[in-house]
Design goal:
This protein is mainly alpha-helical and 218 residues long. It contains nine helices and five strands; from the N terminus they run αβαβααβαβαβααα.
Length: 218
């Protein structure tokens, strides 16, 4: 997620070069005005079509590896309607984008219209409690969407679990009532791969401990 490329087309060039140098496989660049908002929030604004396509051209020209994926995202569905969002997607394709991301369609019919109008790999934001429908992944793929982002479920689950444990502690002075739903110490250690580190300790003699002497004056 490279937001709007962090500036104008010159900034986009630098953004792409930096992401690619870091080993990232691709980025998506959007047409929102900074400061931007979540794609499923109200009050978004978008730049002109000309500015957006210039950014995509800059991104395409900046990449050194043709396998680095340029995803063009438009938030124009919320500001100008679906027809304009599709038009922007088509313009970004012509500018060289590899994948098109029309953010926040509001119905399954809109998702079908996007898929039928844009002859390109498509990106779908499967955002729980957002503006878009949440069909099973298989249905999204059947429409022609090749990439599905799942930005919120793990975040929501983490927040929900922390809140539940802290609420139990505040009310009861213990989380014992939730213990059966949580991993044990041993299960967590297996998950983080502690056994592998124990083996490495044995291999390098760390488990036995070291006696390190430092000679002064050397």
């Amino acid at each position: 997620d490279a937001d709007n490329g962090h500036g104008n087309p010159l900034n986009v060039r630098r953004t792409v070069r930096e992401f690619e140098a870091a080993g990232v496989a691709g980025v998506h660049i959007e047409d929102q005005v900074l400061p931007k908002r979540c794609g499923h929030m109200e009050g978004k604004q978008v730049v002109s079509l000309e500015e957006m396509t210039a950014k995509i051209r800059a991104a395409v020209e900046a990449r050194r590896d043709s396998d680095f994926v340029i995803i063009a995202r438009t938030d124009a569905r919320a500001t100008h309607g679906l027809e304009e969002a599709v038009r922007r997607g088509q313009a970004c394709l012509q500018a060289g984008a590899d994948v098109i991301f029309v953010e926040a369609p509001t119905t399954m019919e809109e998702m079908r219209q996007i898929a039928g109008s844009l002859q390109a790999p498509l990106f779908f934001n499967w955002a729980r409690t957002g503006k878009s429908p949440l069909p099973p992944f298989q249905e999204v793929a059947a429409l022609g969407y090749k990439i599905i982002a799942i930005p919120l479920d793990i975040l929501y689950a983490s927040w929900f679990a922390v809140r539940e444990v802290l609420a139990a502690m505040a009310a009861e002075g213990t989380s014992a009532a939730l213990a059966a739903r949580m991993p044990t110490f041993e299960e967590f250690n297996r998950f983080v791969g502690l056994g592998e580190y124990r083996e490495l300790e044995e291999r390098y003699g760390v488990a036995a401990g070291f006696s390190v002497k430092r000679e002064l004056g050397r």
